[in-house]
Amino acid sequence: MSNPADSPRPTRPAIAWIGLGIMGSPMAENLLKAGYPVTGYTLEPEKLERLTAAGGSAAGSIAGAVAEADVIITMVPASPQVEAVAYGPDGILENARPGALLIDMSSITPQTSVDLAEAAGDKGIRVLDAPVSGGEAGAVEAVLSIMVGGDRADFDAARPLLEALGKTIVLCGPHGAGQTVKAANQLIVAVNIQACAEAVVFLEKSGVDLAAALDVLNGGLAGSTVLTRKKDNFKNRDFAPGFRIDLHHKDMGIVTDAARGVGAALPVGSLVASLVASLRAQGDGGLDHSALLRGVERLSGQPAAG
């Protein structure tokens, strides 16, 4: 009789990870912790060193990273970068194996995701768009919200992997649906941060204990994940980037363009998009999006802190 301990352990699919930035590095490391073999590629050598120190492998090219991968995950800043890594003779589609699953976790336009899925399908490569919400802290803690677009069978196949990265994982519809939901997410987050920033300046100018005020506000109907995650940024004027203004500016462009395309009015969202753009134009694009507080301070006649 065979000993169950002698039975081969199920192997996890081999992962190629493209893009090891603020979000991508901790996410790839969480897959390593969950037992997935991860080969990474990025333009920053120090990020490859970080991956190998965590137990992953480094590739010298996209082609080298994806050639033997069962699953390819991309986490890059915007649509042009997704297109750059996906297309062309050195890109993913020309070098991945037929049957591989490409999961794009970048935040890009819904149409880019639809076009990518169509082009990949011609190569026999399956695609999911799976953008995330939760910022750097959510990536590190593996508690991201992951909104997915694509086929149900591919979603079901990817779910165990996604569960190593997040806690709320939902198939939102066909290709592009994940990006549409992410655009709505970024709209809500930006408006929420702006409202919190205005409240902070109002409270401080009124002479109220800011820490006490934010604690009690966060315990009531005004409470939110945004306030929980960002209240220390506001109190300490700590704007080290967890999610940069530059990227939120890009996302506000996505949601305003997509809303225009479907005939949805965004009166508050359009205003906040302008405030994000203004902050970026004043040189704050590299700061965390909680730095919207700096814009409110300037409008209120006081020097921007931080």
Automatic annotation (TrEMBL):
Residue stretches spanning the membrane: none
Statement: the UniProt record of this protein carries the keyword Methyltransferase: no
Gene3D superfamilies (alphabetical): N-(1-d-carboxylethyl)-l-norvaline Dehydrogenase, domain 2, NAD(P)-binding Rossmann-like Domain
Keywords: NAD, Oxidoreductase
Superkingdom, taxonomy of origin: Bacteria
SUPFAM superfamilies: 6-phosphogluconate dehydrogenase C-terminal domain-like, NAD(P)-binding Rossmann-fold domains
Domain 3-hydroxyisobutyrate dehydrogenase-like NAD-binding residue range list: 176-294
Protein name: 2-hydroxy-3-oxopropionate reductase
Species, as recorded: Streptomyces kronopolitis
Lineage: Bacteria, Bacillati, Actinomycetota, Actinomycetes, Kitasatosporales
